[in-house]
Predict the 3D structure of the following.
Amino acid sequence: MCRETCAAQIILLAHTMGGQEDRAYLRDHGSQQVRRVITLGTPHQGTGLANFGLGRNSRQMRWTDDANTGQASQWLQQLEAAEDAARRKLFVSIFSHHDNIVSPQQSSRLPDAVNIDVTGIGHVALAFSPQVHDIVIDEIRRASAAPA
């Protein structure tokens, strides 16, 4: 994207597991070309609903692992272990206390990131909410105005 836009850095916006994919991308490729990552309803610490899924993505998003130890999935634990506070400070996590997919909703909080909670908005609706759009635009402006 940087090559196509002739930009030195980009701002990523991701919904739900897309935020985890962005974290995995930064783990694998570094963050030099990323100014900010804004996530909407991303279960950064996993979601209980994923425990009912059968596929690889469900296993990765589990709030508790298969051994039911009370810890997130092994994939999420490894992802977190590969990050430091500086990397997580690139993130803004926007989440709703009324998310009907991410449960518990607080699992969308990412340590060291900017965490912004909203109310009365469901999981899918986060992508279409005028309130969330305003927050996203403010965060993009803030990131664009900050020195690289």
Remarks:
- Strands lie at 10-15, 34-40, 91-96, 114-118.
